[in-house]
Write a structure and sequence with these properties.
415 residues, mainly alpha, Growth Hormone, Chain: A
Length: 415
């Protein structure tokens, strides 16, 4: 009976992680294009200014990331996740009252990035790691898949609320719903097994295996910053993340130019999210089978294929077709990033490496969305944007061919 109760509470943590990732992924990142399209209609500003909300979100998240990570370890991941839901609710309430674009920038610089971090991978993965050993990989996989599930569901809901109540009232409804959900999320999450008189899951068949040489290495921040492979990984991940974030923010605007309705546009985001869910599973498995370089090049090839179709697309059907390879590639971007770090710098230095790398992404990830909007404002189309994005992905692919295990001074041979 005790074992059954323990398993139920363990898997409840994985479900809570999936819920948190669904909320932050579906309502922030996957719905971003719906917000930019709505704000363009409301404020009538150039797209370069409208899409700055993506830049402020990226800047805010990258600056707050080290602090959120610190408090997850030192304080309570449970409280952090509940706070994330509250911040998301407050952010939507602020957006509902926005009279100018400056007001929207405030929400996307302060409330929404904090919500994205506090509801996302950092706290949920920390909690799951405390509960699981033998089935940790499966539990983490269920948790991170929540983002794609949220992306398939929430854009349709957001469009429906916008159409039924107007965007201001819709944001109020969304904000109030999230604030009401805070106590439920707090109840759902349990920081540690010992908090409820239980123990961490026992090891599986691999118990007793020694850590690999890579996992034993403790990289200092200075060593990371003076290692060429760290910078190569940073360039690859920044380029791929810049394209995914930039396209998410501008796809709705491009769809509007093509004459697609709000429902059709929301469907595009749902298709991207649904296929990214499959991409996470399939491409994640390919990393184990084919390695980083080959699988990374597959991700790049899928992305380029979709962007080329998008460049030539002149109908709703063609844009939908382009979303198929792009969605699969989206599913591979995060596994590519996390696998590069984990396999290159090991479990002992993983948090440090990703914490240092995140802010270094900012110059690229924060600029691509408003740059795309500016190009659309000045040229009247997104054709040049797609060519730039194709170039960025090709650059990332070229960098992938140079990937190799970084050599730490404490290692005698390359792992």
């Amino acid at each position: 009976m005790k074992a059954t109760r323990a398993d139920l509470i363990r898997w409840r943590q994985s479900g809570a992680g999936a819920l948190g990732n669904a909320l932050q992924g579906g309502l922030i990142f996957w719905s971003m294009g719906l917000y930019t399209s709505t704000f363009e209609d409301e404020f009538g500003a150039p797209r370069a200014r409208i899409t700055l909300i993506e830049s402020f979100l990226s800047i805010g998240a990258n600056l707050m990331s080290p602090f959120v990570g610190y408090f997850v370890d030192k304080w309570s991941a449970r409280a952090i996740m509940a706070m994330g839901a509250a911040m998301l609710g407050f952010g939507f309430v602020v957006l509902s009252q926005a009279g100018t674009l400056i007001h929207t920038y405030t929400a996307f610089l302060i409330f929404l990035p904090l919500a994205a971090l506090a509801l996302g991978v950092m706290p949920s993965s920390t909690i799951i790691s405390r509960w699981f050993r033998k089935r940790r990989g499966l539990a983490l996989g269920i948790s991170v898949s929540g983002s794609s599930i949220g992306g398939a569901i929430f854009p349709i809901i957001v469009v429906g609320l916008f159409a039924a109540f107007g965007w201001r009232t819709a944001f109020l409804i969304m904000g109030a719903s999230l604030l009401v959900a805070v106590p439920f999320l707090y109840w759902l999450v349990v920081d540690r097994p010992e908090d409820v008189g239980l123990e961490q899951e026992e090891e599986g068949d691999a118990a007793g295996q020694e850590l690999t040489a890579v996992d034993q290495v403790d990289w200092s921040i200075r060593e990371l910053l003076t290692t060429g492979q760290f910078w190569l990984q940073t360039l690859i991940s920044a380029s791929l993340l810049a394209v995914t974030l930039g396209l998410l923010a501008n796809l709705s605007l491009h769809a509007k130019d093509m004459g697609l309705s709000g429902t059709q546009t929301a469907t595009l985001y749902s298709i991207l999210a649904f296929l990214s869910f499959g991409g996470k599973i399939v491409i994640g498995a390919l990393f184990d089978k084919l390695g980083l370089r080959v699988t990374g090049l597959i991700v790049a090839a899928l992305m380029v294929t979709g962007l080329v179709i998008m460049y030539f697309a002149s109908t709703a059907q063609a844009i939908t077709l382009a979303c198929i390879p792009i969605g699969l590639a989206y599913g591979g971007v995060t596994p590519m990033w996390t696998n590069m770090i984990a396999r290159g710098f090991g479990a002992k230095s993983y948090g440090r490496a990703i914490g240092v790398m995140n802010p270094l992404h900012t110059p690229i990830t924060a600029s691509t969305a408003p740059l795309a909007g500016y190009i659309s404002d000045t040229t009247g189309s997104y054709e040049l944007v797609f060519l730039i994005y194709i170039g960025l992905v090709c650059f990332a692919g070229l960098c992938m061919t140079r990937l190799k295990p970084p050599q730490h001074k404490s290692l005698e041979t390359t792992s």
